[in-house]
Amino acid sequence: MSKPTLLYLGEDIRWNHDLYQKLCEVVNIVRSESPTRDLFIQDLKEGKYGDFSAMYLPDWNSGIGLGNWDSELIDLLPPSVKIFASAGAGYDWVDTTCFAQRGVLYCNSALACTESVADTAMWLMLSTFRNFSWSARAARSLDLEQFWDAHRNIGAVTHNLRGHNLGIIGLGNIGYRIAQKAHAAFSMKILYNDVVRKSLEVESSVEAVFFEELADMLAISDCVILATPFGGNKLLDRPAISKMKHGSRFCNIARGKLIDEDALISALETGQIAAAGLDVHYNEPHVNPKLASMDNVVVLCHTAGSSIETLIGFERLGMENLLSFFETGKALTPVNAHLIPNTKL
After folding, report:
1. 183 is known as an active-site residue
2. Does 31 participate in catalysis according to the annotation?
3. Partner of 33 at 20 to 30 A CA spacing, among 156, 233, 274, 307?
4. Catalytic residue at 164?
């Protein structure tokens, strides 16, 4: 029996060479040489890569040139394609429904970045409770007046994390790891809202309390962390933000478009929200200048999941998905299997 063909997108394997050799034993690998979307579209129209069965993107950055995976690209794929395994956690750049309509599984690698993102959430939360951004800016200014202002006054407006209520929106792999760290290290009380309630075993492990209504959780949370995928709509709009406990903190390690940035700014200006820690932004790569100028706001460059361990994991998990699919018929981390009729994956 001939081996299926895999269309390899992006740069060479950097870390998991033994696993790559195993993959080569299972599939024939064809490399895409199209650095831009236009050239890739042309190659697909011309059938340059033949009837390949799978696609693999080991490094998300190397696929940026192809742009979003929407119907313009997906409709050009041969009917033989059954799975796309990619680096990265979020999949707002992939039309998973369009893939499902063609019977194609899309597999992300969110599990690989869980630890890194959860660590970043801890740092953002610490920064918002202790206002480390104010202290850091004052120190970097090399201005004595700013130094002494932070040194003398920061203690009167900051708090320790211990014992505070942490409200997590989305208790998936990342949200749960955040809960574990916050509960174990800072004795925080874990509250959560999700579309599906977790098992009693999961809840009891971090003493988590489930809130079916988001507004009820927001009203008593001392800090709210967004840790849920982007589903196409704002989750925290102006009415929702108005329900947040006065003086609470907010951290976002999910997607910038999940929150109304103008409403967030207003809440920060009025004190409704005391501080915010943002790894992601509404109009990336553009950071809102008002947010960037605030001493009570920490802003990052969407780097919560960026670490050597994450990159190694992205690369590995993509290949493990492919190997599992071709050896057993089942992928490890499909995100759209429920949208494919009659699938057992």
Report:
1. no
2. no
3. 307
4. no
